[in-house]
Amino acid sequence: MARRARLTHERLHELLHYDPDSGEFRWRERASYVVNVGDVAGSVNKTSGYRLIHIDGRNYKAHQLAWFYVTGTWARPMIDHRDLDRSNNRLSNLRRATASMNAANRRRPRTNTSGFKGVHRRRTGGRWRAQIWKDGRAHYLGLFATAQAAHAAYAAAARRLFGEFARTE
Question: Residues near 6 by Cβ (< 8 Å), separated by ≥ 6?
């Protein structure tokens, strides 16, 4: 089966208008019988939370399209949403990131029982272990008497390793 051509910058501008202040894409052309000129493009996927826009037989994530629309280049490896809202595609909320940077900007996992990102209690000895991941490698930060002390070590390492991408809560 023949592979569809990748969307060009010119084709994107021909089909859609992007407002960087609102983060919305609106159709410039009638894309199908259910889509009118001026309609907000795409829909939010209930599973992933990303807004997807169907163009020329392919689905695109709106945040990738926003970056491409403004810069003319595809953001690789990925785009990070500063506020963690996957449907907020305002240009000021988007930034180019590596997988490691994107992971640093995640919230504390729901399965975390310590209450602090990067901290868990050791089964033996009952001390608190702090650990952070960068570029697929774990960085051991030490054992601590309290979860708060372990979290302080994690927060300092996150700021040092990830700068503006560091999210410690």
Answer: none
The tally of CA atoms less than 13 A away on the side-chain side of residue 46 is 0
* CB-based contact 142:130 (threshold 8 Å): yes
Structure tokens at 121: 């209690």
Q: Dump pLDDT digits (tens) for 7-49.
A: 999 999 999 999 999 999 999 999 888 899 999 999 999 999 9
Please give the order of strands across the beta sheet that includes 51-55: 43-44, 51-55, 58-61
| Beta strand residue intervals within 8-50, DSSP E | 16-19, 24-27, 43-44
Residues of the chain with pLDDT under 70: 1-3
Maximum alpha-carbon separation in the chain: 66
On whether the CB atoms of residues 36 and 27 are closer than 8 A, the answer is: yes
